[in-house]
Amino acid sequence: MNTSSKNKKKGGIDLQPFVRPALIAGGAIVVLAIVVGIAMWLRTIPSVEAFIEKYPGQDPRNEVESGFPAWMGWQHFLNAFFMLLIIRTGILVRITQRPEGHWTRNNKGLIKTKGQPKKITMNLWTHYMVDALWVLNGLIFFILLFATDQWKRIVPLSWDIFPHAISTAIQYASLDWPAEMGWTNYNALQLLAYFTVVFIAAPLSILTGLRMSNAWPEENKTLNKIYPAPVARAIHFPTMVFFLVFIAIHVFLVFVGAVVGGHGIFGNLQHMYAASHDAPWLAFIMFALSIVAMVAAWFLARPVFLTPIANMFGKVSR
């Protein structure tokens, strides 16, 4: 009999499930401390400081003149809103063994097929619907992005972006953070991260999700050979993990940057939620409302609440 079983019989607390997470957390803290120590040491080297002075982290060629327009704030919220639901429903599709309900498409609507529509789970239907809204929002974002000068925020305009990114990473790691200039341009690491999200991860997520969906023409053997389903599955889940990591780092840097970076708790919130330099309480109210909306959507995105909507496009059954 192992120690865990003995503890359970004696009514004690089984600490075994907490050992591995604690070791991982402890290891992460040690690694982080080492990285910070190395970065601080690098900052004492004159050539490194000269490098940072030459490449402070922001490429002036990526500056915009329009600041943060209101549409970007709405796009930011809708993207976060839909992404939250995509991640939630994607996880449910992956782990749920006994779905609460199923949905079958009505073959008499705008979309008609020769074969009979396949029955899918309500979790998968919700995932598809939110995917469609996220893609629509993304198309609107692309149009507005390139119809204005905002594209310069996230598209590298010279190879200097890479030494700027290295400089930015050293500054972050040394806890002497780069200057905050978000109103006019992102620093190099932010730019490269957003470029990866918008132009690489998002298209990959869409293309792999489409291959795995019921909309894919399974009868087309040539197309299936060119783009096999296992390839799509091998890419789709890691892409979702990338989004999770990006969101975690993004939120961490926004709020920790308010303290370490010294630009105030409302600095970034004002830009993104109020499209202003000087509207702290409006930004806070808009931010709080967005959090309430996302929390509410998290709990309401269930078959019991979505059945009336699903019935408008097909039939819900057990």
Description:
It is a single chain. The chain has 318 residues and is mainly α. The protein has helices at residues 3-9, 16-42, 46-54, 70-95, 122-147, 161-173, 188-212, 221-226, 229-260, 267-274, 280-300, 303-310, and strands at 102-105, 119-121, 314-317. Strands 2-1-3 form a 3-stranded antiparallel sheet. Helix 5 packs across helix 12. It is globular. The mean pLDDT is 85.
Spell out the blueprint of helices and strands:
Blueprint: H1 3-9, H2 16-42, H3 46-54, H4 70-95, E1 102-105, E2 119-121, H5 122-147, H6 161-173, H7 188-212, H8 221-226, H9 229-260, H10 267-274, H11 280-300, H12 303-310, E3 314-317
Antiparallel strand pairs: 1-2, 1-3
Helix pairs in contact: 4-5, 4-10, 4-11, 5-12, 7-9, 10-11
Q: Give the N-to-C terminal Cα separation.
A: 43 Å
Give the overall silhouette: globular
Q: Give the % helix.
A: 55-70%
Strand arrangement within the widest β-sheet reads 2-1-3
- How many helices? The count is 12
SSE sequence, one letter per element: HHHHEEHHHHHHHHE
Strands, count: 3
* Largest β-sheet summary: 3 strands, antiparallel
